[in-house]
Amino acid sequence: MHPTLALAATTAAPAQGIHGMQFLGPVTFSALATLSTICLVAGLRGSDRIRMNNKDQALVWGFVTGTLWIGAGGTWADFGNSMGEVGKGLTTGTGFGDPGLGGSAAILLLIAWAWPWKKRMIWPALLGLAGAVLAGQAGGIPGIAVGIIRMIATKMSGG
Asked: Which residues contact 21 (CB under 8 A, 6 or more apart)?
């Protein structure tokens, strides 16, 4: 064997593969929450790479971001819980009775989805954020989507 090839054979490290769903390598929930928040803000601000052309896209980005905020814990969870409190404030104390956590989540998500927002994509995104937090707290059927997003994020973060 040629001496250069022998040296290359002994110093070459095996290529690292993708383990599980870790597409980006070791990533934490905090990193996923940060990435999602950057994408959400960029899309809302009119990025040429991340587009939010309709309320459905804004709602989904908001829902995923809210779910990741709670999963990340710390300051991210504080942001998320604050959004949840705002969401509860919008749906309770209105004179129509207390809809409960699941009802509040459903109301916020239905308003975000059904209302004609035109070009104001920030409102469905914010309602999606609040709705995700409340859906996660409520559990049941509204919490299933939150659970699925958390499971995917857990696999991506290697947890």
From this structure: 152, 155, 156
* DSSP SS3 for 117: coil
Structure tokens at 111: 């308003």
Model confidence over 93-152: pLDDT tens digits? 777 888 988 999 999 999 999 999 888 999 999 999 999 999 999 998 878 999 999 998
CB 66 within 8 A of CB 33: no
Q: Which of 86, 67, 157, 73 is nearest to 127 (CA)?
A: 86
How far is the C-alpha of 30 from the C-alpha of 74, rounded, in Å?
A: 9
Residue 22: φ, ψ to 5°: -80, 75
Sign of CA dihedral 87, 88, 92, 98: positive
Beta carbons within 8 Å of 17's beta carbon, 6+ residues apart: none
pLDDT tens digits along 74-92: 999 999 999 999 999 888 8
The Cα–Cα gap between 56 and 133 comes to 18
